[in-house]
Specification:
HTH-type_TetR-like_transc_reg (chains A, B), DNA-binding, DNA-binding transcription factor activity (chains A, B), about 0% strand, Tetracycline Repressor, domain 2, transcription regulation (chains A, B), mainly alpha, Transcriptional regulator, TetR family (chains A, B)
Chain lengths: ~230, ~230
DNA sequence: TATCTGTCGATACACCGTATCAGGCTGGAC
DNA sequence: GTCCAGCCTGATACGGTGTATCGACAGATA
């Protein structure tokens, strides 16, 4: 299991000051550019001009590195504004924005226990900004917003990737899925879905995210004693 | 040559014919027992007494197999009850229950576009059961519930795994995290978190899940014309 | 200078997903 | 009955992965 405190920096005669932070930053850059699959210990080490095993002086395991990446991103996720509703909304917005800048976050978020300093600091800031509301409501409310954001961000990034793939490779995508979907709908087994696809409202990602968030915040509001 | 002897019994080791379904079922069983990491094409093939390359006659890629696993689980996710609220609640409940039976679902859910027949059938059933509510509300409402469920299930399974790990390895877990957390809180940088841990309500997984779901459904209710 | 000691990273191992392709088996043509 | 074409199969191989091991080397000590 990951110990979140950085180990003693090895005070070598410093040809190149390797550090946990530099490793994490290199990994994040790799992931931003080429996706999470491109993050291998070998590639991270190569980006730092170092042998792969060198990393194990700073990181116990690859999963640790992934946890550190997530925690590093949380440094930029802070609630703003006043009042519980604005705090929760800004938390959701900031998390979403972080996922836009680091799409790989969608793959990791919510998938591991997060006890890193930045993640804890985010929670601390949220809780501190919500004083005035009783804990019995705050705790499930924050949990619900976090859960919603995790799911919404995953869906959004997943869709974005699919769109990008279909954009870059449109005729192949259509050749693959078009006939399948056409046939599937032609079976008549999905009438409601069919009418939805043809007549339903087509919300963009922003609208969908905010509509769901508003639902949730409205629901919470009904339980916050005023 | 002993012509009169019985020939080899024809139905000796006649294995069931390989099929996509058998492959997916074998993969699900592996994942249920040993986790998603244990699902490798080699192991799935071995479980079916077959060479690894044989699988490529039925699936194009390992990601396909994972998609098929998710879709297979969706066969058991169906909404029940009448009225949009009961439909959405039962959808959430069924998804959560599926994740309890197949913990690996938490790792995959929401992470890939889902166009499989069972997934489509789930959506179809939900939409069909919600007629009477206008599409402009139904679409974001279903999206929001799905997002919430994805995030909530991820958090719940993540927590369950951490608990299990700490239960099986308690002294090691405490030796690793106890001092770190104690020191971290001792810094005084997380006063709100500290008081929360000490004084806050400790909801169990059921309560947390339902509290958040109720928030969301209440919020949707405020937007459903009655 | 000679010895000890601890760190570092080259090498190795087991495993992964999957491309390739030789070989065997089957079905059909004569 | 014989032969051949073609397909299917699965052994082999390739380039990758995370990480355990341990020999070599550097710095400290005597």
């Amino acid at each position: 299991m990951l110990v979140w405190e950085r180990p003693e920096p090895p005070d070598r005669p410093v040809p190149a000051p390797l550090s946990r932070d530099r490793i994490v930053r290199a990994a994040i850059e790799l992931a931003d550019v080429d996706g999470l699959d491109a993050v291998s210990l070998r590639k991270v080490a190569a980006a730092l001009d170092v042998g792969p095993m060198r990393l194990y002086g700073y990181i116990a395991t690859k999963e640790d590195l992934l946890d550190l990446m997530v925690d590093a991103v949380h440094a930029e996720i802070r609630p703003t504004g006043a009042g519980w509703r604005e705090v929760l909304r800004s938390l959701a917005e900031a998390t979403r924005q972080a996922a836009h800048q680091h799409e790989w976050l969608a793959d990791l978020i919510g998938g591991r226990p997060q006890l890193g300093p930045n993640t804890l600091a985010t929670s601390e800031a949220v809780l501190a900004a919500m004083d005035g509301v009783d804990l019995a409501t705050v705790v499930p409310a924050v949990a619900a917003v976090n859960a919603y954001v995790v799911g919404a961000v995953r869906r959004e990034i997943t869709e974005r990737r699919a769109e990008r793939a279909s954009g870059m490779d449109k005729e192949q995508w259509q050749a693959t899925f078009g006939p399948y979907l056409r046939r599937t709908f032609a079976t008549g087994r999905f009438p409601a879905l069919s009418t939805l696809v043809h007549d339903g409202p087509h919300l963009d990602a922003d609208q969908t995210f905010h509509a769901g968030l508003d639902f949730l915040l409205d629901g919470i509001a009904a339980h916050v004693p005023r």
